[in-house]
Amino acid sequence: MQIIIDGLGKRFNREWIFRNFTLELNVGNSYTFVGPNGSGKSTLLQVISGVMPLTEGKITYQLSKKALDEDDWYRQIVLAAPYLELIEEFSLIELLNFHAGFKPFKAGITHDEILQRLELDSSKDKAIKYFSSGMKQRLKLALAFYSNVPVVMLDEPTSNLDAKWSAWYREEVQRLASDQLVLLCSNVPAEYDFCEKIINVGDYKPER
Ligand SMILES: Nc1ncnc2c1ncn2[C@@H]1O[C@H](COP(=O)(O)OP(=O)(O)OP(=O)(O)O)[C@@H](O)[C@H]1O
């Protein structure tokens, strides 16, 4: 899996958030977008994931050197972010079943196994809307960690997590297979200090 970003720019109204962003992302690597609040980390991640349109430039998604079209690209990623909601009406087990219908979990990872790893066995029939913010965040991360997809994107991964679950995040994110591409947005070094490539999005803000 490879993502080739060429001269990417995003503008809201008259304000350019970033411009001339060029980067090649390759499977087997982890990348983090850093930068001050409002510098455009989440915007860049959303544009690369395809949930937000770009203003200029080009992004090519390639699998085994062949360009993917948009529908196929969507199947290759899981994005976990504070601004993406889970389906609140579902119970936890319904949500796992629903998710697995689109993006199956990795070989050997059963739904029961996920419930145990999340220590949420006793909440499997509880509606997501009654989950605490930390429980929801654990669940979003689990969907990202355990889905069998080549690209894992995480924005502010430890938001709402306590020390125990932040440590779980660190363990799991570093365990992601060498055949995956990991893309993070963060301002918290403990979330990304293991990462090979750190990119400051603020460097791509055009002068006014
Ligand atoms: N839909 C939108 N319409 C207009 N402006 C937006 C929109 N979304 C984001 N912005 C602006 O784009 C800029 C970058 O926001 P973004 O959320 O990407 O920053 P960030 O680096 O992720 O910030 P933080 O560290 O605070 O999470 C901000 O000035 C923000 O107000």
Automatic annotation (TrEMBL):
Recorded GO terms, molecular function? ATP binding; ATP hydrolysis activity
**Where would I find the ABC transporter domain in this sequence?**
3-208
**Which parts pass through the membrane?**
none
Q: Which InterPro entries match?
A: AAA+_ATPase (IPR003593), ABC_transporter-like_ATP-bd (IPR003439), ABC_transporter-like_CS (IPR017871), ABC_Transporter_VariousFunc (IPR051782), P-loop_NTPase (IPR027417)
Q: Which UniProt keywords apply?
A: ATP-binding, Nucleotide-binding, Transport
- The organism sits in which domain of life? Bacteria
Short name of one Pfam family: ABC_tran
| Official protein name in the record | ABC transporter related protein
What broad taxonomic lineage does this protein's source fall under? Answer: Bacteria, Pseudomonadati, Bacteroidota, Cytophagia, Cytophagales
